[in-house]
Amino acid sequence: VDLSVSWLGVNMENPLYNASGVMCRSREELDAVAASAAGAVVTKSCTLSPREGNPEPRYARAPHGSINSMGLPNAGYEYYLDYAKNYDHASGKPLFVSVSGMTLEENLTMLKAFRDADLPCLVELNLSCPNLPGKAQIGYDFAASSHVLSEVVKVYDKPFGVKLPPYFDPVHFAEMASVLNSFPSLKYVTCINSVGNGLVIDIDSESVVIKPKAGLGGLGGDYVLPTALANVREFSRLLDGKHVIGCGGIKSGREAFMHILAGATAVQVGTCLYEEGAGCFARIRDELAAIMEEKGYRTLADFRGKLLTM
Ligand SMILES: O=C(O)c1[nH]c(=O)[nH]c(=O)c1Cl
Fold first, then answer.
1. If we measure between CA atoms, which residue out of 21, 193, 7 comes closest to residue 94?
2. Residue list, ligand 1 pocket, CB within 6 Å
3. Is it true that domain 5-53+72-196+222-302 has CATH number 3.20.20.70?
């Protein structure tokens, strides 16, 4: 079976890579993902200046996934620009850079720098960080999203993508798709970011499990799989000529198969990567290959987007 996927001018031998935020803040972590069976690498969302992030504990494993309120800890955009300049693009593993400025001006400054560096990496503009106290997610404000993207495409003329929050209403899917469809150079969306502001409670300690925001944090893992699949399928259906990257609840070949069946071009692994380590890419790849073998599919295109309805 052939697990490769070619899209946006990049070729991936394996459709699996890390979700932004997991194993991608330092060059050592990024190199570990690049050295693994992952088919691509994406950096931790960056801001203009380095950030410490929220007070710890800010990540916790939960019975069916994870909760995090990291608060955008990162080394600052110049660190990731430097990593991208030195990245071995000939390695065949595309590098994606996640950008998540604290303000529109920050985003424009960073995007101009990446534009001017003229690197083969692709930008994933994060519209969905749920963990900055007092800051609403851009992705939940359709007018703000449209304004940000209008300003972005004025300075950043290369293909790019956006990381979207989960939506939970057909009207919202349609509204956001309408906004996104008005930007031809926006070539992909990554669905989904964590399900924002959940609350995990430990009944033994009768306490929350993370410190920031009185315990509120973004959910990942099994908790979010059905929501992730719905967002992948809806945006695959509603977006014109754009790719959808699936993220959310992938921990085996089974969920990877589901995401691709729902329409995903490629898939990102977050919670499972955090808990298992970079070995998960080879394991999930092999599990996906076995499922394809069993079903008689030779390539991802044989079943991509072919989810049956009743
Ligand atoms: O708290 C974070 O750093 C964070 N955590 C998430 O779950 N999604 C994001 O986009 C970000 Cl930026």
1. 7
2. 21, 45, 68-72, 100, 126, 128-129, 131, 193-194, 218
3. yes
